[in-house]
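Weekly structure sync, notes
Attendees: PL (lead), two postdocs, one rotation student
Agenda item 3: pending single-chain targets
PL asked that the sequence for the first pending target be pasted directly into the notes so everyone works from the same version. It is reproduced below exactly as submitted, 303 residues in total.
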Amino acid sequence: MNTPVWLTQPGARGAPADLEPGLEGGQHTLAYDQYQLSYEVYGSGDRVLVWLHALLFDAALGRGLARRLAARGNRVVLLDLLGHGRSDKPRHAAANRMDLYAEQVLRLLDELGADQVVLGGVSLGANVSLLTAVRAPERVRGLVLEMPVLERAAPAAALTFIPLLLGTYYTRPVMRLATRAVSMLPRFGIDAIDSVFNAASNEPEVIASVLHGILLGPVAPTVDQRRTIKAPALVLGHGIDVIHSFKDAERLTQQLPDARLIRTRTFAELWVQPARLTGEIGDFLDRVWADGEPVEPPPSLLD
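Predicted structure, written out during the meeting:
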């Protein structure tokens, strides 16, 4: 049996104390329009993976993966998108469109001075990675897409997020008390769990603006746009919940010209028993960076 991730994370109970230099992330900020975005860097070198969190979560969700992949020679960058984590949190929906999240990723690449990176993430992070790959294909060397949310999931996502959005708007006093109570709770030092608590600590206005924002613009590239993405992709899907439909992951793998699908054992496998999937992602990164120069990509379809 694989050791649960929380027993091997630096700073957690039983975690190794002698981390290699650079494997424990440094926190940074960058300017995006009038806002400040926060990001963390693990490892060093030219093999850059930008990993994006799920909706309302933050960079803490990916720290365990970042450390393990940094130990394999990658530089892993965890970005808090606007409205999330330590980044600024505007209270209006227009700032939280998903196509603007893709712009923030490109702003990060400019800040890093990275001509090409591998993009990846979970749920929201997977969709933003796809949008970025269509907008700037020449910047994307590969894609790691965990639990993408596409057409099959649309009805279930609407039934989940719209009532939550309305509830956030119309029960703000109650929600404000709840989120403040959660914010006062001590954190466990277990990154994935702490990310859940951080998400639940967001003020109702922040939650509402993020949920409203993702409903305003494109949630994912069109099918035709996906078929133009030439970067190799590793797609991770599961069949447990209806928002992250395995059928969506399966169809995305068929739509992308160079993609491989892995079925995860649970939605939390990458956090709880990470060895198998971390190995698959690490091997994928080795292959992507070992290949020669990629084929000249098509022009962006989102300009």
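Discussion points:
- The mean pLDDT is 84.
- Strands lie at 26-32, 35-42, 48-52, 75-80, 117-122, 140-146, 233-237, 259-263.
Action: rotation student to compare against the earlier draft before next sync.
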